[in-house]
Amino acid sequence: MPGGDAFDERDVRHELAAAIDDLRSLLRAFDEVEPAAMDERFYIHAFNELDLAGRTVVDAFDRDRDRDRGLGGAR
What we know:
Elements: H1 2-31, H2 40-68
């Protein structure tokens, strides 16, 4: 069904854009942290947040690439 493919493409593109926007927001939030607040707990939390955001972006890119290759929802 052609309409379903168009919806899937928009959904994948939106997911990728949203993941990138979330990563940008996270990096901006890190810029606002005072150096005195950058303790061990901050770095542990920051690592976990960056890890999750990075994996989300990579997964969104993979789905976008798979869609471009005609693999659909193979993931």
